[in-house]
Amino acid sequence: MRWLVLCLILWPGVVSATDDGSLTRLLTREETRPWGGVGRVNIAGSGFCTGALIAPDKVLTAAHCLFFPRTGKPVPPEEVHFLAGYRTGDFLAHRRVRRYALHREYRPGKADRQTLLRADIAVLELEAPIAANAVTAFERDVRPAVGDAVSLVSYARERAHAPTLQEPCHVLSRRGRVMLLSCDVNFGSSGAPVFVRTDARPKIAALISAMMTWQGRKVAVAIDLRASLDEVLQELAVSDARSRTVRPGETLSLQERLGTGTPGLRKTVRPPPAAD
What we know:
Elements: E1 2-3, E2 23-25, H1 29-32, E3 38-43, E4 47-55, E5 58-61, E6 80-84, E7 93-102, H2 113-118, E8 122-126, E9 149-156, E10 159-175, E11 178-181, E12 193-196, E13 203-214, E14 217-224, H3 226-238, H4 254-258
Parallel strand pairs: 1-13
Antiparallel strand pairs: 2-10, 3-4, 3-6, 4-5, 5-8, 6-7, 7-8, 9-10, 9-12, 10-11, 11-14, 12-13, 13-14
């Protein structure tokens, strides 16, 4: 999760959030299962982001989660774990990451802040698919409009060991692919899926990239997926494989699956300086 400062003077269509739902911790397997495709993306034993299963072997998350904040170097894929439906030491499925792809415009150090924000999308390819009877992947839906209600499932600094559901929160404003949401987020929520409900099952329309202060309140910054996710999936399809395979018969302890002895928090990039 990044702390972001943007100039919003020209943002059109601003509305006030009303009737936002409170945060609900999903503590039991029954509560977690409808949202079981959301999980913790544990990174290099030093922290986590949030991710969502979009195919049996693919997880959507934020691109900035995959860079070490101090060095700016990419995290090796074999040091990334996905724990679907993780809660208080239990999970519905665990996989290591075989490789990943970023949006082609996400180039830290070479692109401006606005471009990085719009391109903050990554897809992780898992070492093995997750069976549908264990966890069902989420489908995508059209982008929400200003004023629309959305749902958010995420992990965060103060809720690291159980996902929380906020339903509803609202789209406050949007400009191009970037949206401001009234959803409650914090460090660790990066990559969390933003859901819309067009039928019984929620579908993903956006992902959380950052948080910021706007009109005196903390808001979430989300990225509209649209064609961008398809571009990342295409990049993954044509990229060279980088893999680390768990040996047949090898068993992993919960500590190894979590990727850290004491699950911690990693600010996935340094906060940018405040605006003058």
